[in-house]
Each structure stands twice: as C-alpha cells, then as structure tokens.
C-alpha cells in the first residue's frame, strides 16, 4: 500500500539498497549477453571533490541516457571512477600536515608522503562516489576505477613510452603557467582571469646614438607596460610595421634603462597602434605573446625571475651577458626581491632618471592560480611536451567526417578553432602525487625513457659501455648489483599532468593495454556528456589518444551541456555567496525533484537558472504523481492479465491511450536527439496536464459509479496509463517511480530493467539500408545480428476519441480563462449556449454535460442557432460557444481595470526597451542583468497581449 505522504529520503535510501543488491546496473548481465552495448564513461570527478551543481547536471543527464537505453534492452556500461587530481589532492594532504603540526612533505620525504596521500584517499576518497549514488547514478559500481589504479598506471606508462619512442613526446624549454606558491606548472584550466585595478606605466627607452633628454622626444621611444618589473628581461621593442611614427626606427637599437643592454626595435603586427603608445616592450621569457614575437625575430630569452617570483639577477648568466660595466651592482641590489616589491622600487628608480613619462590608472585581467590564489607567472623552464599538433590531425578529421559529432553542432566550431591552433601540450608537473614520469637521467644528463627502471638501467648501461664511459665489466656488475649503480641514473622527479591519464579514460578503464574482452565489447563508447569548458582539456585529448592507440574515435557523440547559474542568471561562485549546494536541495526536496528540475531546464540554447523554488515546483510535481497513484490504488485500479488498451471502448479511455502513445513517441524521439528539456517537459505536461488534471478528473464518475464494463475498463486503463507514466518517467525520476512500480504494479522485476513502452519491431530492408547509410564505418549497429531495436512508431491512435475529449478540455479551459480574466467569482454560475452546433457536438455534449457544468462552473448548457446578444463568444475547435454575461459582469468596472493593467504593462515594456536600446547599458552591464531585462520585456508583452484579448472579449458583452 502506498504511504499517505511522499517522503523522498525514505524512498531513496530503500531503493538504493534494492538496486545494489539486485546488481541492476551491472554491465554484461547474463540476460544482456547478446544485446547491443551502450557505453558512457563518467567524467571522473576529483577524488578530493564534493558534489556540486555542475556534477549534478552532468550526471543526471548521463543517468537519463543510461536508464533509457537499459530499458530499451541495451547492455549498458556506465563506467564510473575518480581522478587523482594531482595538485588538489597534494594540497589537501599538505594542509592536513600543517594543521596537525606534523612534518611537511619535504621533511617527510617522497615515499612517506605518498603513503600518507594513499591513506587519505582510502579514508576520504569515496565521498563524491557516495554522493553520486544519492543522486541516483546508475553506474556499474563494481567496475569503479581510479586514475592511479595499477592497471591505469600501466596504461599511462605504456602511452608515454610509445609516444616518446615515436617522437611525439619530448623535452623543451618553453613558457608555462607557473604557480609561485605551489612551485609547479599548471594548466590553463587551473588559471582564473581576475579583473585587477592597477596602472599602465609609460616608460622612455633611450635610442642608441642620441643623448637622452626627457624634454627631447626624438631621443627616446615610449613603451607602455603593465609589468615594469619584467623590463629587466626585455630583449626588444615591437612596433606595428604600418605605424608611420616608428617606421624610421625599425632595425635600430635602444638602450634598456637601468640595465644598459642594447636591444633592437622590430616591426611586428602584434603591436597595436591604437593601444598605449603603439610601442611595446618584448620580454620573451615572461609573456606568452612576447615569446612568439621573440621567436619570429630571433630575440634572446632572458628570465629574470626565479621559481618563487623573486628577481634572479646575480649568477644569472643570461641576464649578465653583454651588460655594460657597472650594471652588476644594480643586479646585486635587486637580487631576490619579490616581484611586486621590485615593481615599486624599479619604478622609483626609473622616475629618478626621468625614464617615466606618465602613469595612468588601468583595469585589466591578471591570471591567478585557482587553488593558490597567487598571480600566475609565465615562466621559462624545461618541461615535457606532447606534439599535440600531430596528434590533433586525426582528431580534427574524425569530427569533420562525422565519425564523432557534437550536440549541439555549433560546438564543433569551437573544437576546430582550438585544435587547428593547438600548441605543444605541457604534461609535466612539479608535484609528488601523480604518475611519475618514466624517464631516467644518466650522469651526463642523457634521458632514458622506459616502462620500468630495470629496462631504463639496461638501456643506460648499454649506451655508456658503447660510449666507453664505463667498461663492459663495470656494466655487467652494475646490472647485477643495485648498490654498484646507486646514483648512476636518477629518475625524473616530476609527475604527469592529470589530463594525461584522464585522456586514456575511455579505454584504460576497460583494461587496456591488456587484451581484455571489455575493450572489444565496450570501446568505442557511444556518448560523452560534458561541459563546454573542458572540450579542449579533456574531450580533444581523449580524441587524440583514442585515435592514436585504438585507431577509432573514443565516442560517436559528444553532448555539451550548458552551465548551471543562480536564479538571476549569475555564475555561481563562493565570492558572490550564490553557490547552491545540490546535497542541501536533495535533503530538502529529494533527488528526483532536483534531477527533474535540471532536466526540464537543460536546453541547448541557454544556461540553466536554478533556484530552490524551481526544485520545489518539481517536488510538488512528484507529490502530485504520488497522490494520483494513491487515488488509483484506493479505487482498486489494477491492470488485468492480458489487458489490451487498444481494445478499450470508452472514448475517454481510448483518448488516454492515444495521448500516452503521443507522449511515448515524443519522449523517445527527444531522448534520441539528446533534447533532455523537451523530453522532460513532455512528461511534465502528460503527467500533470493530461493524466492528473484531465483524465483522472474525467474518469471519476466512472470510477465512483456502479460496477460494470465501464468501471472495469476505466480501472484497468487508469492503472495501465499509470504504469506507462512510471516507465517513461523512470529515467528522470528513478526513485519515486521504482517505489511506485514496486508497490502498485505488483509485477516481478525492477522498473529499472522493465521494457520501454515503445515495442521493437522487425526492421524493414529500407530501415536497415537507411541505418547502414547513416552509421560510421565501424558502427556495430549496421549488423542485422546486432541491430539496435528500431521502434515501431505506428502506435495507438484514435482521432475520434481525441476530437471528443479534446473538445471537452478546450471548452472547459476557455470558459475558465474567461472567468479568470473577468474576475467572475467561483460561486457565480454562468450559462453556456452552443451556437450553431454540429451534429457531432450535439451528439457528444449530453454525455459530458454534468462534467462540463461541474468543471466550468456552469448553471446550464443549451443549444441555439446563433449566440445571444451581449454574450462573450469562444471559438472551440471551429464552433461557437457563448457565455451570456449581461448582469454577471460590471462591464464598465472591468474595462477600467483592464485599461489600468494594460497601462502598467506598457510602462514595463517601455522601461525595459529603454534600457535595452541603451548601447552603453548592454555593453557594460553583466550578461545576466541584460538577459533579465529581455525577460521582463517579453513577460510584459505577453501580459499585454492577454489583457488586450480580454478587453476585446469584454466588448462582446456590451
């Protein structure tokens, strides 16, 4: 029996145990051995993480697809797991050590520190997995993976070694994003651009051969910079080749202030004549754009900062080379001064010599580390790189050919822009937690890359014997005795970028590089669900690695979802205090309500505006479903053995079968197209507007009437439609539907494994040919033996029943609308005249008179050749229904009220349009503020349209 009150927490706890005990989500179940696989790999959350709203959306959408395909008979593998999250995890453990006043990692040593990290992972690493289970994620939890599992680590090493052997991994000295607090390179995704109020310094650089004077503009060139402290590493000044002001100076030297080094003026289009002075200093070792300018003009790279962001001048051979006599004293004075303190002191020194022309306030974005909060420094250092340009070519071709498609398709443009302009991928990190790079260095710095230390030693000894650095006898001794080769070769201390191991996720999780049967069965995967912000960092890299090592793209479809914002459209952030915790919403409203809210809002075209009120609305929807199922149970509604809805005789029951078929087709087609909001909205309308608000209400007379064929058929149909709803709604709201299925359906088996309402039919030759033409060259679906069920959409349809019940619904709806528009009190009953009614209407109206009178608050229904004078006329399915309202409505008062409301709407429209017409407002206001004004305008326009319609109707009543 269904409990009186809907209690999500009780249901969720109970159903989670039921699913887990029954192994409902296990891939490769015996009953699915011959089924076509359907595979999704979860974007592995950080092991340090906690469920946030992005996770909630992403995993809800994945779960909808997995539950949908599981019910369609596919062998579903939703591969779960977590990412070791190098920096984040190392920071967590280091913070713990500091808080507990224990030795830091340096004092502890690498081996002991890593033991502590693994200990923390064992104790706390499953937090987010348990939170995903609370959300209802139907992953095959028995296959959970971790990016530093032994098998995945083996895959990482193999990939590194093979790419290095093929010349696709190499070491190079380039600029990286350097975190001066964490002392490591970081990826672009770990960099936050923060708007900072600072200054723009205009500096005078003396021209060689001229006597510098601040009063003589011909003796210097002015450069504008936001970073005067890096000027010490300048090796050029760039001007635009078409800037007439500087054309005569191109190729000449200037004297770098304070330093005295000669540097060249070069012509380069990077310099913008419209910005600053039109001349920019070029510091190749401290700016990514300057690095490229320097490469184009052969400029030196002089790094003047150390790893901690302090000036590094003394013993800096690059800096000291070619300096005039006496400049070293300046180096000693400023050596090891923090970069920001150095900025202030250098500007003071420049001012004292007249090298500062002016200083202007300047607001610009400055990169900050998302975890350390420190300003990120472009830093010139030796790192390991992947030749991403070479690997990107097949990945670009796979999307261009349609082997992999993006949904929505417009994201392909973003993918191509990134991939076609791809730079070498820095894969090394100066951390301890992560996959240690499988590279060893000999005594002369030569690199030996191998899968194991023994293999590296073998290569190294062979090489050094051949080079006669050691004798053959020494080589044999060192090979046999570890002690004798101690310190001979040393392993690279760096670890790999976390994205390197996650790039292998679609096949490493299946057991590659071993010859695991799962690799053949579940690779390539079907759909990847992810956010737009990691298309480059994760999606593109999985494409590159999958194509290179597996010779197939890792997924056929990439679904890109939008962001979840707050109710005003602002991006959630801790600093704004507008972060919505999904776990709090689950505690208050239940996981199903949150999931359905997210699914209903997950449109391709705009971000999701989420509020607790929105989730509450969907909890109320769940309560309505719950109560409707209780109503059916209380009225003994069950599906008899062998019941066939298509054989129902009553128009109302044939109508709900017709509507259920429509909803089934609509939901199925929307999910196949990954239009989650359309599918969820179709279910919302069907459950609330069709089933609860109309079918159950219209069925009450039959359910409460005398026993007989009508009552029996209606009971069966109420239960049948309820069961269809539970099936269709299950992918979106799994907990409540599984509970109601268990309590009401009284059938063996879980709803999670029940058959989807659209029944499969034998594919025709035409369907097979069409599918084969649309499939990729490696798509198993083209095989008739493995054909994905093609569903027969020639479902139940009854236009006659739809016309009759649709007429009743439209008539009641329009009458209710008029009563609401004209403020007619509920207690006031009005008459209805069906004017010039057709034979069909005259035939059906008597059957529904009592229902229409009750639901539309009518005193009487009559027929006439034409509408009475002064009656409001409604057009219902092409026929006139008239409401005589003389004496019922105070026409003059209503007209005054409506005119007043129209005036308010006009004022709202004018106010919004005035703001939107202001170019300055649109350009400078936050995106969510502008969007809010657009929404206000649209709402006011819609309100005005309804008011004008009501006013027009009112005129009929005079």
From TrEMBL:
**Which segment of this protein is annotated as the motif 'KMSKS' region?**
571-575
Where in or outside the cell it occurs: the entry states:
Cytoplasm
Record motif 'HIGH' region, residues: 45-55
- Ranges of residues in domain Aminoacyl-tRNA synthetase class Ia: 18-611
Q: Which UniProt keywords apply?
A: Aminoacyl-tRNA synthetase, ATP-binding, Coiled coil, Cytoplasm, Ligase, Nucleotide-binding, Protein biosynthesis
Instruction: List the catalytic activities from the record.
Output: tRNA(Val) + L-valine + ATP = L-valyl-tRNA(Val) + AMP + diphosphate
Q: Which domain of life is it from?
A: Bacteria
Q: Identify the residues that the record assigns to the Valyl-tRNA synthetase tRNA-binding arm domain, covering every copy.
A: 890-955
The protein's Enzyme Commission number: 6.1.1.9
GO terms for biological process, alphabetical: valyl-tRNA aminoacylation
Q: What PANTHER family has UniProt attached to this entry?
A: VALINE--TRNA LIGASE, CHLOROPLASTIC_MITOCHONDRIAL 2, VALYL-TRNA SYNTHETASES
The entry assigns this protein to a family as follows: Belongs to the class-I aminoacyl-tRNA synthetase family. ValS type 1 subfamily.
Domain notes from UniProt: The C-terminal coiled-coil domain is crucial for aminoacylation activity.
The protein, known as: Valine--tRNA ligase
